[in-house]
Amino acid sequence: MIALFALLLVLAAGFAAANMVVGRVKGFQVASATDGGQVLSWNRAGGVDHYDIYDGQGKLLKELAADEGCQYAVEGLKSSTRYTYSIVGVKSFFGRHTGKAAECSGYTLPETVSALAAMNSGTGALLTWDDSGAGGYEVQYTDGYSEPKTLEAKGRDAEGLSIPDLQEGAQYTFQIRGFVQDGDSRLYSDWSVSEPITAVHTADMTGVDVTKPMVALTFDDGPDYGDVTDRILAALKEYGGHASFFQEGASASALPELMSRIAEAGHEIACHTYDHSHYGSNVTADDIVLADDAIEQATGKRPTAFRSPGGETTDLIRNVCVSEKMPIFYWSIDTEDWKSRDADAVCDAVMGHVSDGDIVLMHNVYDSTADAVERIVPYLVEEGYQLVTVSQLVQAKTGKPPVPGTQYITATQTN
């Protein structure tokens, strides 16, 4: 009897000991992550009643019953941050018995980048975005035809990352995502919303001092059949100035040699519709495109700026100018040379009224305008003004080339 009792005690002790031994939980890992949470997972442990999950500071996050599965979602975390966890299996049998702790760690994902903006910067782009605190960023861009190009950026680049050497006139889309480096692998955020941009013409700024005052003289309706344009060109050449000539397509076709002289002298070749016969809502896409074709045929250069007849600009005009890659230019000083046909009146409209950044409207079809220009040009130079094209003016004053489809009144004022 004593022997049997002793045997029972030994068996009971063995059974109790077996039920008090709890092994280490295996397969404990960060199974997935978002920018504000993580999902922990592990392998089911036999005989365990529940699991205790702790954060890196030893705080109990969850007591999870074994029959509730082997996953636990941790919410409310910071993005781009590494978190550490531990887990123990727990068995209740004549008390609470725990196995050895298993540990795992991992990053939350970076937040999806917001406020990505792509702006023209010459024949390139300037990207800005809200720094999400990611370890780094991956920027991807494409013109829709070529394979996407990818480059890396840092948090400090969020204030302005330059993407140079885009193809002028091509439209590009940009997107960005943040990443954190976890050993040999990376964890990425979702891609941001893509931002489009069209690479625009950038002006040749040779000889332009952006720190000094400047004025853009502009001439409409030509070229003329007399010597008005030649006299204006001679005055500008004598004083080292440049101007913008908003010419008609029909006249350009009729006078290709004169148009070529304007272009060869380094002046800006601009469009003023085909024959100036339509105004405002009557202006058609052909009025603009056919003029551009004619001017390009005459000079070998497609116009880089546009002025609406009478200054009346419509949505159609803006849209066509976007397609034709031309910014639009109004004026801040109207000499009304077409009305007065008087050189003194034209000079009075400019002298004493002009200021830095002005765009002056004249027409290279009147003898009186040529008379006035021969006085206005030396006056402006003596007053310290540089004589520049409208594209140079905007680029000098804003640091960016003028945007196609946008109408400029001065170097910095648009409507």
Total helical segments: 10
Rg value? 37 Å
Q: CA-to-CA gap between the ends?
A: 109 Å
Strand share of the residues? 25-35%
Calculate the mean pLDDT score and round it: 93
Low-confidence stretches: 4-19
Counting DSSP E segments of at least 2 residues, the number of strands comes to 24
Tell me what you see in this structure:
This protein is α/β, with parallel strands linked by helices and 415 residues long. It has 3 domains: 23-107, Immunoglobulin-like; 117-198, Immunoglobulins (Immunoglobulin-like); 214-408, Glycoside hydrolase/deacetylase (TIM Barrel, Alpha-Beta Barrel), CATH 3.20.20. It has 10 helices and 24 strands. Strands 17, 18, 19, 21, 22 and 23 form a 6-stranded parallel beta sheet that branches. Strands 3, 4, 6, 7 and 8 form a 5-stranded antiparallel beta sheet that branches. Strands 11, 12, 14, 15 and 16 form a 5-stranded antiparallel beta sheet that branches. Helix 4 packs across helix 5 (285-299) and helix 8 packs parallel to helix 9 (367-382). It starts with a helix and ends in a 7-residue tail after the last strand. The relative contact order is 0.10. The model is unreliable at 4-19 (pLDDT under 50).
What attributes characterize this protein structure?
Immunoglobulin-like
Can I get a quick summary?
This protein has 415 residues and is α/β, with parallel strands linked by helices. It is built from ten helices and 24 strands.
